[in-house]
Design goal:
With 153 residues, the protein is of the alpha+beta class. 18% of the residues lie in helices and 37% in strands. The protein has 3 helices and 11 strands; from the N terminus they run αβββββββαββαββ.
């Protein structure tokens, strides 16, 4: 009944490797920021793509599943919840606007920082206020947001 010395080294080495952040199941992986491309667009054919930057590899994900919002003149504030959708968004707002003046809107992409979070759910009221309504923060309370501009000529 002899044991090979390799087992005494291999098992502790595997446990150590899986405990290092970024290795193993990715439990420490977090979304750090969201960028939207293009950063500004104009007209009814405006289309956007969200890209997420994470702390460990893979560093970026395009398209990133996000919840899309649009804010601006004539738009009622949305409810404070998210529902992740494909990271591509086609703005329909300009085709709905009947005005002789140029209107500017903000397109927002919001997602939980935890990539294992549910695909929909509530956003705390203050976090929603800061990220979506006031746009004073880009990350807060476990959520991350990115913005782009939409101009309706």
């Amino acid at each position: 009944m002899s044991r090979k010395p390799v087992h005494f080294i291999a098992v502790p080495a595997l446990v150590l490797l899986l405990s290092i952040p970024g290795c193993g199941n990715g439990a420490n992986r977090q979304l750090q920021s969201i960028s939207i491309s293009p950063s500004s667009a104009s007209g009814a054919s405006a289309s956007y793509t969200a890209t997420g930057a994470f702390n460990p590899s893979p560093m970026t994900v395009t398209p990133l599943s996000v919840s899309w919002f649009i804010m601006g003149s004539g738009i009622d504030p949305p409810g404070s919840a998210y529902s992740l959708a494909n990271g591509n968004y086609r703005a329909q707002r300009c085709s709905q606007v009947q005005t002789e003046t140029t209107l500017d809107y903000v397109v927002l992409a919001v997602a939980p920082a935890d990539p294992n979070a549910p695909s929909s759910g509530p956003i705390p009221t203050q976090v929603f206020q800061d990220l979506v309504l006031a746009r004073t923060m880009t990350s807060e309370g476990g959520f991350v947001a990115g913005t782009a501009a939409l101009t309706c000529p």
